[in-house]
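Give me structure tokens for this 968-residue protein.
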Amino acid sequence: MTRKEIVYETLKRISKDISFEDIEKGFFGFEAMEISDLTKIERANVSRELNNLVKEEKVIKILGRPVYFVDKEILEEITKKKFDEKCVFESFEELGTILNEEKYNEKDKDNDKIGQDPFKKIIGAKGSLELSIKQAKAAILYPPRGLHTLITGPTGVGKTTFAELMYKYALLNGRIKKNAELVIFNCSEYAENPQLILSQLFGHMKGAFTGADKDKAGLIEKADGGIILLDEIHRLSPEGQEMLFLLMDKNKYRRLGETESFRKANVLIIGATTEDIGSTLLRTFLRRIPVVIKLPSLYKRPITERFELIVQFFKDEVGNVKVPIKVYKNVMEALLLYDCQGNIGQLKADIQLLCARGFLEFKTFNKEEIEIDTPLLPDYIYSGLLDIERRRNEIIHLMRFSIEDFYLFTDYDKEKIVSIDNYKISDNLYREITEKYNDYLKNGYSLKEINEIISCEIERYLKNLLKKSNTEKGFPEKEELFKIVSPRIYNAAVMAVDAAEKKLNKKFNDNMVIGLTLHFGALIERLSEGKLNYSEEINQIVLNNPEEFKVARLMMKIVEEELGLSIPLEEVGFLTMFLTALSQGNNSNKRIGCIVLSHGNSTATSMAAVVNELLGTNFCKAVDMPLDARVQDVLEKTTQMVKAVDEGKGVILLVDMGSLTAFSEIITQKTGIETYSIEMVSTPLVLEVVRKCMLPEMTLKKLTKELDIICPYIGRNVIDNMVEELNTEELVIVTVCITGQGSAIKIANLVENNLPTIKDKKIELVPLNMNEVNDGIDKLKENSKKILAIVGSMNPKVEIPFISVDEIVLGKGLEKLNNIIFEEEFNRDNVKSHNYFSEEKIFVEDEENMYIEMLERVLVFLNPIKTYTIIKATFDYIVNKENIPIDDCLKVSYVVHCSCMIERIFLEESLYYKEIDILIEKEVELYNTIKKAMEIIEQSFSIYVPDTEIGYIIDLFNTHKYGMTQIG
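Here you go.
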């Protein structure tokens, strides 16, 4: 193929993708550069060949900057129009005008035809509204006089306009007379006065009620032969619904106060509501309305329809303002993706708001056209761009024919495509803006002042419009972060981090995006004020981290392009440092916790609330200390909050005075969390501290160093005494057992019954399941409990003194536990306490009696003598069979475990053992020996010992075998 043939075939191929809808939106062709990219032929050569094809009348050429080309044959096929010898047009406008002239002529002819379908003009007629339109047509055409209909859907979807289209369809198809009316009545306007609403609908006779001084016809009479739309029909009272029954069933009704005769009216009723009809309307009423049409909300409609709506609304504004409107692609993307809670109505109102703002700039700067760019977007609309990544393919496909980075809507876009909405904007709005602008200018206001004043009035105007149109939520609230930084900055940070993730092949925490957003926000302020200061360390970091430096340069380029800024090169060094810190896995993505503590009922809470509102966060926490509160209670509350807010970088306490100054040291001792106190707290101080705490590179050490300079710590002389006064803890002894909390309770009873010191010193005994011992100990510490010792069947291996059950039974353990208690007492009182513990040995000389006595305290319903005899026989069998040395600790553990096991099996509460099959396979010989021994227990107590219980016995012997510390 020749070069010209390649160029021509490529143009024909891409021209086939054009549709008539694309042409209606203003797309007519392709640039030479685009064809150059596809063919890999130099642009100059492509341009030369295209111009040759124009001369041959094969290609249409549209002049301008840039020049566009399209295949002539395909364009003629799409538009159904012959271009003859004219293949060059001065502009899109010229070509568009020629195409529209023929279209308008055809439209005028069609309008003369009876039966013209008004629904064809509606956006979504062949899409999301197709079923709704079919239902509407069926309701209108159903013989003999149509079917009463309900239209449902949320505010702003256009129920009223849809009813108007049904009325037009009925007119054009001869279902109602040409002079028949569409009467619209909003039931909510009279909802609080049922008598008045009935009077409005049905009319009344003179004297029917107080104030009825003459006969009056109602809306039913006015709508006779036509249609009545009852908007917000759910506000119609049950009495009002019942009065419509006779009219709907027999075309009869009476005026209010009329008793002798009936009146006749042939009226088709259409109701509209946002509510659930099943719960707001009478069933008998609903039975008389057979057709229910549900209109979809905007977010349920295809994005292509939303695009059409946006385009049409901008065309509408061109008709209102009589000035071309240029809308940049980013604006179109934001309008396509933002959360438009008020549906189509709000979408139109938001576009009107943008055009009004753009019109103000058009007047101020004497522009040739209204420009709608991202700076005009409210943040809640701009936030739609944050969702673009998720829907990028849809957006690209939707805008694939737009060569420029903007859409230009001009005066030739005159066709009104009917769209569904209830929102009406004053035709005089732009005239009012012009008049006010001129008035303020005459009165000596600056351009900046004029813009601010009129912008506020525009905002107020549109908000009132939304309120009148029943948009429930109005303008959506801005995201919390966007109160201190623009969504535009956040979007730039997201794009920069996304690029960094791809280049460094790693995933960063969301906090990095937030951190960079805040940093860029502060950077913009510093740039505007000329306040830039960079550390000398940055140069060294850049040299030592070349990979991060390359990525940082890419990130900075993205930020510059997105924000339209020129950023100093040193800032690249900062980003390098940021990336390096993250690569090394430090805590730069975490924050220092911040708590305000102050005397008074709400002083701390008020300061924290002010700072959180100013910074748009809930990061700052507060603890109030009423004057009648116990210091110990406030300390406990603060301790819990410190643990909740700590992210691994410590917590700073901002306190006012007194005992609160001692909290930091005490809490650090209790929790191990690094804390620091700053006194003389004030709102400005809290604001500065919270701002610094939110910086990802900030550390507690660096923060306290900076704060000590501006508010040196005072009052340290009172802390030592306060620490001693406050640092008192309740004493606890924990009991644990591998077989569950029930057994741990029995061990606790054993300890309490044999050691009177427990009750004397009010020491709490806390039984815990071995599986939950660590969490239980942590919880006790959180509640300011000091754990003196752990007594149990197996050592949980924590840094707390452990005493095994066998030591308790044999006597030595009680002595050890007693010494621990009195050592704690001595440390607290600094005096030697009286030794309540008898030096006599607790254990009984006779071993059998000792075990039986122990089991009497442990067992609930088994006979201790029988139980011990049987369990001892199994123990002897196992140790002899496996040649295990007999040990008192092992025997006590075994006896306690097996006795508790038997009672558990009776109660059907056998223990679960994870991966028991693996353990049995590993310890098959020991398992067979224990299994054989368990037959003695099974026969004696008529029970079955499951393998899961045997698993714990295997562990018991293995623990002893391998020399691990344990109870027996």
